[in-house]
Amino acid sequence: MSELTIRQPDDWHLHLRDGTMLESVVGFSARQCGRAIIMPNLVPPVTSVTEARAYRDRILAALGPDSGFTPLMTLYLTDRTTATEIEQAAAEPHIHAVKLYPAGATTNSENGVTDPLAIEPVLGALERTGLPLLVHGEVVDPTVDIFDREAVFIERVLAPMLERHPDLRVVMEHITTAQAVAFVRSQGERLGATITAHHLMFNRNAMLAGGIRPHYYCLPILKREKHREALLEAAIDPSGRFFMGTDSAPHPKGAKESACGCAGAFTAPVAVELYAQVFDQLGALDRLEAFTSLNGPRFYGLPVNERRLKLERRPQVVPEPITAGNDHVVPFLSGESIDWTASLLDE
Ligand code: NCD
Ligand code: ZN
């Protein structure tokens, strides 16, 4: 297959940031995706319905008219989030989920939840309203090795949480391990998972062998090859429970290429092409559309997109660093050649 046309994808996990960064990056997602679940880890975080509405307005302003792109907003849970706020969020049509960051787990998670098993009233409200809980599934216990933090989170936090709340709907975000794949498969329809392109493409050698490559540093951290293999199987699995979430996370060049570089890979400029390359290498291009465009809407109870995206097997070079105010942002794989080129078809 050297060309295929699929329903327009959605990105079920995206960081757009704010201000000049937002203005510089949002167009890359809008060029490919119909909708995206917008992560709330701004500084300060988006913790109320009012803030989520205002952030949505800033995203729409940055997009300009007729972008055709719909931001699906989320709230950031803190130790102070109340059940009433969850109920208000569930009643707000532009809010589609709430995000649980264990405090200290990742970029801008300082205000997250200290003990995810101690937010029972919030979890109860989520259960009652059906609003999904999106989970950054890593423990922050410093005695747990960074490569084990996802697997330990499943054991210590996620499994007991799901047991206590049989109607809670959860997305395990950016899964990276065989344990996460097995856990999602062991549960019913109420648990889904997003997978990034970079975790499907690379194991931790890409980040560490032959030199330390900060653009491959993201959280959860890249794992060993057997985990990548489990993710590949999950992405093409017919269960419909695994879907595209790029976790595209732009940072200024200097903040990544630093003695203490921050976590996040900016994949949005070529996100769908990277997934196409992975599915192509697996001989599974016929499964791509379900992963990018059908499974996510089904989980979120939304219609699939009407527009179509064309993918051609035509090499392209991943764009050069982009400017954002006085900064530059380096796209993941910038300057390297990839196999596919995507173009959105007119309505
Ligand atoms: C994300 C960011 O930069 O906001 N970074 C990352 O490595 N994925 C936060 C996150 O999703 O963990
Ligand atoms: Zn993220």
Strand-helix topology:
Elements: E1 3-7, E2 11-14, H1 19-30, E3 35-38, H2 49-63, E4 70-76, H3 83-91, E5 95-100, H4 120-129, E6 133-135, H5 149-164, E7 170-172, H6 178-186, E8 191-195, H7 197-201, H8 205-208, H9 225-235, E9 242-244, H10 253-256, H11 271-281, H12 288-300, E10 308-312, E11 316-317, E12 322-324, E13 327-329, E14 337-338, E15 341-344
Parallel strand pairs: 2-3, 3-4, 4-5, 5-6, 6-7, 7-8, 8-9
Antiparallel strand pairs: 1-10, 10-15, 11-14, 12-13
The structure holds N-carbamoyl-L-aspartate and zinc ion.
Q: Your description of this structure?
A:
- By secondary structure, the protein is α/β, with parallel strands linked by helices.
- The protein has one domain (15-268): TIM Barrel.
- Helix content is 34%, strand content 17%.
- It has an 8-stranded parallel β-sheet. Strands 1-10-15 form a 3-stranded antiparallel β-sheet, covered by helices on one side. Strands 11-14 form a two-stranded antiparallel ribbon.
- Strand 5, helix 4 (120-129) and strand 6 form a beta-alpha-beta unit.
- Helix 1 (19-30) packs across helix 2 (49-63) and helix 3 (83-91) packs parallel to helix 4 (120-129).
- The two termini are 24 Å apart.
- The mean pLDDT is 97.
- The structure holds N-carbamoyl-L-aspartate and zinc ion.
- Zinc ion is lined by residues 13, 15, 39, 247, 249.
Q: Overall mean pLDDT score?
A: 97
Which architecture would the CATH scheme give at its second level? Alpha-Beta Barrel
Largest sheet: 8 strands, parallel
What is the CATH topology?
TIM Barrel
Number of discrete domains: 1
The proportion of residues forming helix, as a percent range, comes to: 25-40%
Q: Please mark out the parts with pLDDT under 50 across 5 or more consecutive residues, or reply none.
A: none
Radius of gyration: 19 Å
H/E topology pattern: EEHEHEHEHEHEHEHHHEHHHEEEEEE
How many distinct beta strands?
Answer: 15
Q: Which structural class do you get from the secondary structure elements?
A: alpha/beta
**In CATH, what is the class?**
Alpha Beta
CATH superfamily: Metal-dependent hydrolases
Strand content is 15-25%
Q: List the ions, cofactors and other small molecules found in this model.
A: N-carbamoyl-L-aspartate, zinc ion
- Helices, by number, come to 12
Spatially, the strands of the biggest sheet line up as 2-3-4-5-6-7-8-9
What sort of overall outline do the alpha carbons produce when their principal axes are compared?
globular
Distance between the termini: 24 Å
